[in-house]
Amino acid sequence: MEEVIKLTPDGSTKKAGLLNDLGIAFSHRFERLGKLRDLENAIHVKQQAVDLTPDGNANKAASLNNLGISFSQRYECLGELGDIENAIHVNRQAVDLTPDGHVNKAALLNNLGNAFSCRFERLGELRDMENAIHVKQQALDLTPDGHAHKVAWLNNLGNAFSRRFERLGQLRDIENAICVKQQAVNLNPDGHADKATLLSSLGNAFLRRFEHLGKLGDIENAIHLNRQAAVDLTPNDHASKARWLNNLGGALTCRFGHLGKLEDIDNAILVNRQAVDLTPDGHANKAACLNNLGGAFCDRYEHLGELGDIEDAILVNQQAVDLTPDDHADKARLLNNLGNVLQHRFERLGELRDIENAILVNKHAVDLTPASGHAHKAAWLSSLGSAFFRRYKHLGELGDIEDAILVYQQAVDLTPDGHARKPAWLNNLANAFQSRFEHLGKLGDIENTILLQQQAVDLTPDSHADRAGRLNNLGNAFCSRFGHLGRPKDLMEATVTFKQATENTSSRPLIRYYAACQWATLCSKYQSPSSALDAYTAILGIIPQLVWLGQTVHHRYEELPKIGRTINAAAAMAISVGDLPRAVEWLEEGRSIVWKQILQLRTPLDELHQQRPDLADELSRVSLALDNAGTSNFQNFDWGIKPKSAEEEAQNHRKLAARYEELLQQVRELDGFSSFLRPKKFSELASAARNGPVVVVNVAELRCDALVLCTSGEIVPVPLLTFSYNQAEMLRLQLLSSLQFHEVWVNPNESLTTHPAEEANQDHFISVLADLWSYVVWPILSEIEQALYENAHHSLPHITWCATGALAFLPLHAAGIYRSDNPNINISDFAVSSYTTTLTAMLSSGSKPKQDSTAARSVLIVSQPATPGQRPLEYVLKEVEAIQRYTSPNHTCHLTHESATVGAVWDEMSKHEIIHLTCHGIQEMGDPLRSAFFLYDGQLYLDTLMRLSLKNAELAVLSACETATGDENLPEEAVHLAAGMLAVGYPSVIATMWSTWDPDAPLIADKVYANLLGCCDNPESQKEKLTPAYALHEAVKHLQKEVGEMNFVRWVPFVHFGV
User: CHAT domain: which residues (predicted)?
Assistant: First the structure.
């Protein structure tokens, strides 16, 4: 055709028609392939066609109309305002040139209306939308039923009604939009090329009405229609695929906000990301796609709390803002959303610049929006109010809370009753009044808080994901008024409200947890203990959702600090009412949560395999994949999903966790499996004390108690009447000061403290050990003297400590009154002490068959006197020599220097009952499975070790710095290498609580192995062999004599874990 045009002289009457036809061909190819040069060529030749067509020519209007369509298309691609201005200009000319009765009049009016709609979306001027509706209605009125274009014009008119609804929020506009769009869908036959467009358009109208009224049927329709359009009817190479996917993502995000189902937001992120990837850079819709993706990331962050989601949200929302010119009608919306995600990051990290930036962009969004008559003005005001509110919480400046109340009130006033967002604005305003009440103490503010929160709750459906949060806020308001006025009615109202929030399973677990804690606290203080136990029972049910297998191990550890004290409070309440078995069960359930989750995934399934091999096989596969997904060593396990990116990997992880829970439910429905992998009952836990009493010490703010599990199965309660939570914390800090004074403490997040001790640090060892003796250990020993000795097979009985809170970091095994001039009294005179991380650990260790005490033990010695990249260990060779004095060469393997590689140690471990590691170690607090021992060619991680099958393992000796230190923020989790070796399968572990003196390691090793193995060539010594706990006890006694009993920093750190 281009050759024909070149051969046609400019004066020919056919030239304009040929150019117009060529322009249409270019337009068709652009619509198919989306290549901008085709559109540029279309505009160029169509403009030539218009210029060559004289006014009055019958084809002039058609040529103008075609040119207008191309200007509109280029505007949609590039967003250049001049293009839509040109489109309106030429489309209006085309309409003016066409008489009312002309067959094409309706088409021209429709195209002019579309151009007005586009300019309205860009500039937001209401008269453009009024004009668009007017001319589109004219077009429709001129079009008879059965006309080929009737469907398209119905849809276009519906779009105009939708746009005006978004601006003004008048319900009749969205009702009209749904009505005419439904007519369009009904008139359009299945299989028609436009079907997907019409379905998506109708779906968006349902979505808008859902946002206004909150009726679930509307969002279900929106998702169904958009899924048909985006997935079922549109091929991947279609130019509109991205737009339909974007619409589907928006609908899924909206349903997630209402119902809180994680699957919806995961799917929303996937389809929104596809939409972004399919939209070329420079396309006018790119910013909208980025904005929706950012909104989905933000919503998932609010649900899961993964920092990466809010970082991603900020990134894509900032891109959306940067791509959008200041005069664009969507600029305010994009700025508002960017401000919101900055607020979320501020809440997480507390960096002031985030909230300052949020206030700037949220205020900019408000300033860009007309003072009245704009449907989103209330939303932008509410966001700005939230930014002021958050800065007030951070800085405490009264002006910020005054500003927050002002703009929140404006948002409420602008929002009609019945609007789906009204409860959210009321909730925000109520929170601001609550904060001002806390600041100024004016009764009117708390009265307003309760009034507004009650309205917000009443307007929120029971199934809504935000209902628990609003109930929780209302409960807090009742508590505040009770504290101010002392009315019992407020207390009752608060209790009922917190209970309702706890029981709202549609809401986020964290919100329900907070509500349950408040419920428990009120019941504990003011109501019956039995009602408090109900609240704590609910808390124990929520904790697995907070520390969920679908999250990374690192994230689960981030959630745990808030849980420990609650478990201790729950146990204290159970003890106070005499329900000792429940107290033991709860303390066990709340300790080492993540370790137990990891081990649960590695549970043998032999019994299940006999009854349901298919279920056992799938559970095994899912457990293996989930185990890997939770740690940093993710692998692709071919069970149906192949992760390709970090996002897909995270979603796969959550799907695995959901499937794992489904499989557990199926197993528990089988006969004989109702308690499969559930928390253990006391009847199972009691056997942890079969070899001697186990003392569980609970430290709570309400009370402190010891629960002694006796070999008889009895629980002996020992109230620690003179000990308190605050005292335990003080002793922990005094111990820390002492360790810093002696320069042997390692901050878990820093390197070894080698600088001179600070002047503020003092040596409190004598007073710490004395207080532990007087207030904790002696009251327990005096109460259980008979139980202590009834199972003693040696000269001293054995006792196992399982402490909570700050006591988990204190040396109970060394408690005593130490004097330089008088006889001492301490626990080692009465018993040999061990520690355990959990009762469950003792059950699994104690279930191993007893080994023949006369049989030679095979020992693996791993030594690294000069690990590459680490400081030399001067006394390692002496330590190895000490061990080898008691081991048989035929039963000893020594790996050292370059022979002590990761692979070599791994290969040898399963061949030996005892492993002695004298090398550097590292504790990884964020992910304990990445804790490791430094070997010649790298690190041997606990995660790697846990894949071993150590059936004959008996003892691990960890001669490395602070292998049993733990994390002060996670006292109940035993985040240290000793706990890791117990989890690996060693029933007994010797470790250290802090850095030891290098010369002490050979001496301890010498005495431990002398007592443990005896001299290999001395039959008499073979008969006197001791168990690891007693062997260490005797070794430490010897060290005391060598260095002096008052030299606590030298002998106290050596401890025994396990059986």
Answer: 773-1058
